Known about the structure:
The protein is of the alpha/beta class. The protein contains 9 helices and 9 strands. It has helices at 10-13, 20-27, 64-77, 95-104, 119-125, 141-152, 163-167, 201-219, 231-247; strands spanning 2-6, 32-36, 50-51, 61-62, 83-92, 106-111, 128-131, 186-187, 190-191. Strands 2-1-6-5-7 form a 5-stranded parallel beta sheet. Helix 3 (64-77) packs parallel to helix 5 (119-125). The chain is elongated. The N and C termini lie far apart (53 Å). The model has no long low-confidence stretch (mean pLDDT 96). The structure holds adenine. The site of adenine has 11 residues, from strand 5.
Amino acid sequence: MQFGVISLLPEIIEPMLNVGVVGRAVKQQRISVEFAQPRDFTNDAHRTVDDRPFGGGPGMVMKPEPLVQCIASLKKNLPAAPVVYLSPQGKPLRQSTIRRWQGGGSLILLAGRYEGIDERVIDTHIDEEVSIGDYVLSGGEIAAMAVIDAISRLVPGVLGHPDSALEDSFGDHGLLDCPHYTRPEKFDEKSVPAVLLSGDHQAIAIWRRKLALKRTWERRPDLLANATLSDSDKQYLQQLEAAQQDNEPAGDR
Ligand code: ADE
């Protein structure tokens, strides 16, 4: 997987390329990251990359020319890479998008700063605008790091256990992950659920599935609409609904 990253502050991103799962992927040459610095594409002594917004108002806007030249420079090595702009105005980033980008083999990420970038860059040079959540970061670098991390762990050979990525939250089934436990068996007066110590693999699989369904139902019911559910999954969800109604005071119905 080849990444191109446009950023005024690559120093934020560089450390992640030396450690952990992403660091290993870089060392094994399963991913590569090339940076483009907008200041390298300016002509004035101050290497100016931002300017005041037309129409007035607070903050500064990133000028279009350096950004477009950064994109062109990265496209020399990554001609087929989609160009993604990270911003709070983007569509929410989902695991399905991460999988699609990983399948494409290359991606250019544009991390903005200040109030954002000139809209005309978005209009003609950006393929997708995505947000990593409903909060405002001081720049797109952390969002770009999230994308690099999430894609890298899907690149074949990067994770030790190939099933790890499948069983994650939002894996193939589209549910949140079940709870996990390790030694000691008793911690803070709490025991590990007995079924996990039973050695009965079928019972363990059923328990994990139920807990994944229950968590998703409690915390992210929106995900259930697109999840792959068996008849017994649906039955279990109906039981959860019924139990909730039984527990509600009569006045709430
Ligand atoms: N840049 C600033 N905030 C962001 C967000 N929430 N997602 C993606 N990029 C951003």
